[in-house]
From TrEMBL:
Residues 29-167 form the Thioredoxin domain. This is Cytochrome c-type biogenesis protein DsbD, protein-disulfide reductase. It comes from the Bacteria. Signal peptide: none annotated. Gene3D superfamilies: Glutaredoxin.
Amino acid sequence: MKNIFRLIGILAILGATSFYIWKSDNKETSTLEKVEKITTASILNKEIKPIFHEVKTLARLEFFKIDAMINKKFLLLYFHTNSCYYCEKMKNITFADSRVQKELKTNYIVVSVNYSKFKQSFKKQFPLGGTPAIFFFDKEGKQITDENFYGYQSAEDFYNKIERLAKVEKPTK
């Protein structure tokens, strides 16, 4: 009789443990699925990501401004930092969006600055309040200050913004 109670006790403990592990695995899977979606979007779009020209100096930025003017394109200046969650989100979700990539490749020269590394070179001309920060320049190389923004934007919102800007022949400053 004692053996039967021991067996029932052991089975109850095993059942409870199995249920707990199963329930924990389901929670981890849902978190894992979220991470997988971000990673998968990033991996799938890797081949068509826009070319970010990483710049370290104002002189190099000026080179790309001139390149944009010669090619009659807008210049998008993207500031990010090493420890910025929303910078990574912009890079891996917003910039990975195929519509965003197509619009950027068609109408923009995209320049990226790692503000963690090159703050000293840019802080006088671009004193940032935070990152990510995006500045737009028209086809004549003039900054479109009304369109600058800080923080994360979804792919949809960002696409609407860059598409609208590209349709304007001579943007309002």
